[in-house]
User: What shape does this take?
Amino acid sequence: MKDLRAVILASLLALPAAAPAGDKPVVPPLAQDHWNGSQTLRFKTPEGWLVSNTSGQQVEVTDARGDGMRLRLLRWSAEMGLDSTHIDCMLQRLAGPMETSLDVRYEYDFVGGEVDGRRVLDSAFVVEYDAVIDGDKKWRQRNLTIVGKGESVCIVTYVRNSLWKKSTPARKLLTSLAESVKWP
Assistant: This one.
């Protein structure tokens, strides 16, 4: 997973500046271990996060939420096209298409790499919804799509945009959540 960290760190260069010197951001520890429904991916969350698994005929979905943030894992038990899978994963929204603005603000898009013999694409953008969702209409969404070794996986993180802009601990927590996803 060292390569995943490299892809994540390279894409974080576009982040706002860190907190001023002397501030010690407190990031909650990832103390809870979880598995997706098929037991093929494990990940961690802070205490108190709600996690659910939904099995489908084609895609398995795992959702975790807490602290104004969300993590969604999508897994297909087949290797699919990296670009097309990434686009499908970027369309994973918190509301339906008729409740979502078409004006998406990209922070970065289609940053590529490789993780443990798997191909990776990374994109981050802000989506605005028609209605307030958990305290905000604007949410930053990040998609890591990983294809190889017989499967396709998307790691999607969501955070209220106002929280993302103001909180260094929130940015660090989201990075830690994405990095916590591992194969057994």
